[in-house]
Design goal:
314 residues, alpha/beta, Rossmann fold, six-stranded parallel sheet, binds ribose-5-phosphate
């Protein structure tokens, strides 16, 4: 099998390829002066893209990632169907259809947080974006998706995989936490899984978001006096959630506080802000970021294998 990637996920694609012993072919991507994107499957990759199943690793963030992913899927789908017709009449114009075997693995799925219609008239953005890609591939893999329920009935093999085992291993080796905290109810499953793997205590906070930059936690007694605590979330954006949780932990006597997540968005100076409240920030490379210390390749590989089994069974 082969792994291909565009401009935003090439190091994670390489990690996936290394994990599975497959070849990674970076696709050609560039921007026209007006910022529109261009993609091409290079000469050296076209035969293998037709000869074997293909995993495209690509983020749907920022918005330019959505367009690039669409263009790459179209190019891959056309090539696998044997539609090579081109204006300059270069090479064969048609070839046999090689059938199913195109998987899209999305490390960070942009728009995942709009997973419901919170008010009448809103778009359910997570579903809208996923449906667009679902029509262009044979299987989907999502890494630590914010809330999988919205995509659980996709009409194609879909895997929801998680880097929490690797995050737990990393924290266990570097921080050796006594206590894991989920900063809100939404991260309970993820954070408690990490606590279970490490074999340490666990609790959670209840959070109310006032606006994008203001969050409030309900007061709660946490047994963290003299303890090393790691706060575990799916993503860190502004850092507000983590900073408020870290404050609560410090007030209750935590001696060391770390923040760990899968997706390090780190918007608007978030890392500098976080480092005023926590002793360390740990993330995977699902998005390129300065705190990429947890491997994401093994989790992606588990998701891809799951989809392959489903495709083989169909
Ligand atoms: C929301 O429920 C997510 O799991 C994160 O807690 C949130 O997106 C983090 O955002 P911020 O870093 O801006 O507080």
């Amino acid at each position: 099998m082969v792994v291909v990637s565009g401009s935003n996920s090439s190091s994670l694609a390489q990690q996936l390829a290394d994990e599975l012993g497959w070849t990674h072919h970076p696709l050609e991507t560039r921007r026209f002066p007006d910022t529109e994107g261009y993609v091409r499957i290079p000469d050296g990759a076209r035969d293998s893209v037709r000869a074997e199943p293909v995993v495209l690793v690509s983020n749907t963030f920022p918005d330019s990632g959505i367009v690039e992913t669409l263009l790459m899927l179209h190019a891959l789908q056309d090539l696998r169907k044997g539609d090579l017709a081109n204006f300059r009449n270069i090479g064969p114009q048609t070839l046999p259809d090689v059938g199913k075997g195109l998987i899209l693995a999305i490390p960070y799925f942009g728009y995942s947080r709009q997973d419901k219609r919170f008010k009448p008239g809103e778009a359910v953005s997570a579903r809208a974006i996923a449906d667009m890609f679902g029509h262009l591939c044979d299987g989907l893999v999502f890494l630590d998706l914010h809330a999988p329920a919205v995509l659980e009935d996709m009409p194609l093999p879909t895997a929801f995989t998680s880097a929490m085992p690797e995050l737990a291993e990393h924290l266990g080796q570097t921080v050796q936490p006594d206590f894991i905290l989920s900063p809100d109810k939404g991260a309970i499953d993820r954070a408690s899984h990490v606590a279970q793997i490490i074999g340490c205590e666990f609790s959670y906070l209840e959070k109310t978001r006032i606006d994008a930059h203001t969050i409030v936690h309900q007061a709660k007694d946490l047994d963290v006096d003299g303890k090393r605590v790691a706060i575990v979330d799916d993503m860190i954006a502004t850092g507000g959630t983590i900073c408020r949780a870290a404050e609560a932990l410090r007030h209750q006597g935590a001696t060391e506080v770390h923040a760990a997540c899968c997706h390090g968005l780190f918007t608007g100076g978030a890392i500098a802000r976080l480092l005023r409240y926590v002793d360390g920030v740990h993330a995977t490379g699902s998005l390129a970021n300065a705190r990429d210390v947890i491997p994401g390749g093994p989790a992606l590989a588990r998701g891809v294998k799951q989809v392959m089994v489903e495709l083989d069974g169909n």
